[in-house]
Fold:
Amino acid sequence: GIQVEQSPPDLILQEGANSTLRCNFSDSVNNLQWFHQNPWGQLINLFYIPSGTKQNGRLSATTVATERYSLLYISSSQTTDSGVYFCAVNLDGGATNKLIFGTGTLLAVQP
Amino acid sequence: ETGVTQSPTHLIKTRGQQVTLRCSSQSGHNTVSWYQQALGQGPQFIFQYYREEENGRGNFPPRFSGLQFPNYSSELNVNALELDDSALYLCASSGVLAGNQETQYFGPGTRLLVL
Structure:
């Protein structure tokens, strides 16, 4: 089956720093989403980005579908950015819109 | 706020018991998916319902079953609970477009502890 790997697995930042999170996937996909899971478990949609680049405030994401990777950029990090970041993909041509989640990146932003 | 609600928020059961979890989808969405997230792991797909029919299933045993109602809300039922069923159960709703390209929106989850 498809493999979805994220790096780094853990990241500690000082408030105000920038970071880049990476998601590699092993097969063609037609849906890629980035989520932030807060300490209470809520999965918050960040981006729906099967290809191209999007920006939303301090966050931006780029997916290069032909090379099977996506990047999430966090600028000027804040303590509220702490939590686990997941990318999730849906297989191209799959019969069901099921998301396959990556391994996650645990981010801790220190004041 | 995603507009997806789940109940209850927390639940404690003992081995062998049965449990029912509930999910109300976002307005305008006709598809509900259920995921299980064990501690320290990413969510794993259990199954999906579209217009009251099961529309795909992950690698979970038959004691995990579900329903979708005409208003598109959904239930997840787990029989003969095992200790390993302890997890966060997440419900996601979405519309349906050609090619399965549709954003999924997640509810807050139900934390199940099996003793």
Observations:
- Chain B is about 0% helix and 50% strand.
- The two ends of chain B are 32 Å apart (CA to CA).
- Residues 1 and 109 of chain B are 13 Å apart (CA to CA).
- The first strand of chain B starts at residue 5 and ends at 7.
